Amino acid sequence: MVFQKTDATHSASPIGVRYNRPMILDLPYILETRRNHALEHASLHMLARTHAAPMAGHSNPTGFFILGDFTLEEIYHASDEARIRLNAGESGLAIHEGCGTNMATSAVLAYAFGGLPLRGRSSTLGKIAALPFAVALGFVGYSLARPLGPKLQQHVTTEADLGNLQITDIRRVRKGVHRVITK
Hints:
The chain is an alpha+beta fold. The chain has helices at residues 30-48, 72-87, 100-115, 124-157; strands spanning 3-5, 19-22, 56-60, 63-67, 167-174, 177-182. A hairpin with a 2-residue loop joins strand 3 (56-60) and strand 4. The radius of gyration is 21 Å and the shape is elongated.
């Protein structure tokens, strides 16, 4: 893994050079997607203040989609306010409880923990006998994922520092689907 050099306040590598986080998260397309993901979440937070209807989003390097019953004007105002607030340091807006990162983390950990008691058991009877333990460990995995998902959002899947990200256009794709284009 490639790492970025930093000052002496961070932990040292075995050869004495100090590093902070992996640079892979700052590669083109990845960084743009993470910034758009943060802006998408913040925009959904802004929209949720005035709309109780279901909503969702999806990010990529060139912007994001907002799914829900909104006008172009509502999305513009929400996204612009979200951008301004993130740039002002309100990084908590980049974290959203309905994020797919939370769902994926919960599913992976529940599956991984739940599968532990079943590994190495070849007989059907052995698997049935281990099933209560598998279910219990699945719940443990799910419980561990609850605080881990938001941490993954904060440090991996979103970047609240938008840099010079600007909203260049907002288009209606079809009823209930809007595209916010950034650069």
